[in-house]
Design a protein that fits this description.
Elements lengths: L2 H9 L7 E5 L7 E7 L4 E6 L8 H21 L4 H4 L3 E2 L8 E2 L5 E6 L4 E2 L7 H17 L18 H14 L9 H9 L6 H7 L6 E3 L8 E4 L5 E4 L6 E3 L1 H12 L17 H15 L5 H5 L1 H22 L11 H18 L1 H17 L2
Length: 369
């Protein structure tokens, strides 16, 4: 075990030489380790990435506030708070994190036994389970004061601001790539009205501000090894005030696509309606009546807007020289943008089908309450 990890663990009351530490998980943001103690207990040690999260204290204030609230809600419902939400371990000083002499921030979570994460949707039931979990997350936090949360990534889903940044990149044309992507530029500008749909509704007070996860993907769900049921939402660093449709939409964008995010053969790219329906069903079941009728009716729009926003971000990064999203080959960000735009085109062709699926489960819920 590295000496530095050992000194960090001491700050959490873990004596030197009483555990082993190894790198753990497939996350790309924070540095994660599995700590195995002599008494059999396991912990998750993480170093928070300050390049991404520039105010770790605010990240941890959000995480602690939300997890304590969830623990109480789960306890009241007769559930198991030790398995159904994260537990932040305090330092010997009573803090939820430790800041070392180099200015790095560390935290420890209790390890959840008998459950696993999956990076890819292998079958519709996996996607359905993730939908139930994220819907239940909305349900449990429906009366949490969302406005009290810090924006750990300011403007993360400000679609209008994303489009404005795209226009600035277009104007600057720093890498002389504008001439290569006129079709994609025209696609973005032709659908620019998408950037204001949710913002305008918010300004009119028609959409409630909610606690949102903002990275609602399958690999942020713990699934019970024995039952195959989702039990816990993890990776809460991006928990912020937001809109329910954004979490739903990002899940569809990523999980219901029939192709990889950087697929070069666009004929392979579509929005799978079986997976879309499985997610709608699970998400609304998990929410258990906590969403408004307007929010539910806007779920397909959430999928379209989140896909549009992500495509705009990929294309912006391509125009600027690929400095934000990591690439492993030339034009990868352009390919990523093109898959998003193809997904949107497919959604537009299936728009009535998507709306009818949502109405089906909305009406089912209303008829069985």
């Amino acid at each position: 075990m590295c000496g530095h990890c050992e000194s960090v663990l001491e700050q959490f009351g873990i004596a030197p030489g009483t555990c082993s530490v190894r790198i753990f998980g497939s996350g790309h943001i924070n540095r994660t380790y599995l700590v195995s103690q002599e008494n059999g207990e396991k912990l998750i040690l993480q170093r928070i990435n300050r390049s991404v999260f520039q105010k770790p204290e605010e990240v941890m204030e959000n995480v602690v506030g939300v997890t304590r609230f969830l623990q109480e809600k789960i306890r009241e419902a007769g559930g198991d708070p030790w398995r159904e939400t994260l537990h932040v371990m305090e330092t010997v000083q009573g803090d939820p994190y430790f800041r070392d002499v180099q200015g790095k921030y560390w935290r420890i979570y209790r390890y959840i036994e008998g459950a696993s994460c999956y990076d890819l949707v292998e079958k519709p039931s996996d996607f359905y389970e993730s939908a139930v979990a994220f819907g239940h997350f909305q349900n449990l936090l429906a009366d949490y004061p969302a406005e009290s949360l810090h924006e750990t990534l300011p403007g993360f889903h400000d679609t209008r601001a994303r489009v404005q940044k795209f226009k600035e990149a277009l104007e600057a044309d720093a890498c002389q790539r504008k001439r290569l992507v006129q079709k994609e530029i025209d696609f973005v500008l032709a659908r620019e009205d998408l950037a204001d749909v949710f913002g305008d509704l918010q300004k009119r007070g028609e959409l409630p501000l909610r606690v949102t996860h903002n990275d609602a993907k399958l690999n942020n769900i713990m699934i019970d090894d024995a039952t195959g049921k989702a039990i816990c939402v993890i990776d809460l660093d991006t928990v912020m005030p937001g809109l329910a449709m954004n979490d739903f939409g990002d899940s569809i964008r990523f999980g219901a696509s029939t192709a990889l995010e950087d697929e070069t053969d666009l004929a392979k790219v579509s929005c799978d309606m079986e997976l879309f329906e499985a997610y709608v069903k699970g998400f609304l079941e998990g929410c258990d009546g906590k969403l408004t009728d307007l929010e539910i009716s806007l779920l397909p729009m959430g999928a379209k807007i989140m896909t549009y926003e992500c495509g705009v971000r990929f294309l912006t990064d391509y125009l600027e020289g690929d400095h934000y999203f990591h690439i492993e080959r030339e034009h990868q960000n352009l390919d990523r943008a093109r898959t998003q735009f193809k997904l949107i085109e497919d959604m537009e062709q299936k728009w009535k089908v998507m709306q009818d699926i949502v109405k089906k489960y909305q009406n089912y819920k209303q008829n069985h309450q």
